Amino acid sequence: MKESIAILCGGGPAPGINTVISSVAKTFLRAGYRVLGIHGGFKGLFEADPRVEEFSFIMADRIHHQGGSALQMSRFKPQNEDFSVKVFVENNVKLLVTIGGDDTASTANRISEYLKKNNVDIKNIHVPKTIDNDLPLPEGIPTFGYQSAKNEGVRIASTVYEDARTSGNWFVVTGMGREAGHLAFGIGAACQYPMIIVPEMFNKTRITFEKIINMIISAIIKRKLIDVDYGVVMISEGVFHFVTDAEIKSTGINFTFDAHGHPELGNVSKAHIFNLLLQRKLKKLGLKVKSRPVELGYEIRSSDPIAFDLMYCRQLGIGVKKLFDEGHTGCMVMTTHTDEIKPLFLSEVAGDDGKVKTRLLNMDSDKVKTIMNEGMQYLDEEDYNEAKQYVDNPEEFDFRKILDW
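^ thats the sequence. predicted structure below, dont judge the formating
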């Protein structure tokens, strides 16, 4: 039987997925392999009737520039008892290519170990994907999809800033990001937002809703002092990962809860929550400021890849074949600063618990320091006297004191 490879996508969409699929498929088709696409992620792979689609060169060529994913994706995480050798044996699969985040990579490794124990020798190579940019690649090397998602986010976020200026309102924008603030920071900084709030800023104090709201008000008052009555704040949704369930419940906002009693945050707009809390505090302070919530996330995940990701994803796709030919397995494909294709083994980036470490926004970098110190607007000690026309205790809204910086 002709040898084949299987391609599978896990997690959520990111611009450039189709470019990776296209490049992997074309490269292996040229080498004489059959190329099989698995629909439905790991769930589709291990169903009784697996959802498999064979790629032709024309199909691979057609999807190269498209956003979204030609292979349906899934966040399903199979247990060991879900594993099966069926697809691999019936199709003489020699390589499993997974496209996704750290969970997808870890699951692929578990599958590889399972197959080995069942005398099925298959290599697995992972292509790291996330718009969050939080996988532990070398400093300065982005995950694919991040630059395109940021570009689309800036396009949308810029219109929000223009709306704020036109209407004399404030907007509370939340941006995607599980635990890291790369995307929110990148969009907010590019759009000259006067306040950007990401989890990494709270490196000396605990994250609370009160501190976040006070930081927003700090920017509002600072802008008032320079006769600007509008603005936009960007908040990374990642801050929710560090706020306790008790504090979330104390907001009085109606949540649905999962089987373990945790609020299901995916069912409610984070921007709505922050805007509601902001309005409560503004009313308490007697400040008349109109604000509106904007959730920024799903709109940017399936956008068409920009030139950067088109080239980058093509490199990664072709790089899969290079690593395969070199005999590598159980690794991620990556590029260096000199565009060299190299393997990055999970053992090199995993913590003591075996989980892949999250790459956080580097608060000590010159880029971040410049934006935080010069590109944002907030109250500090020299503003106290003038700010008393708006609040009795300006120190409560001193940006650096809120963060214990």
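DSSP finds 16 helices and eleven strands in the chain.
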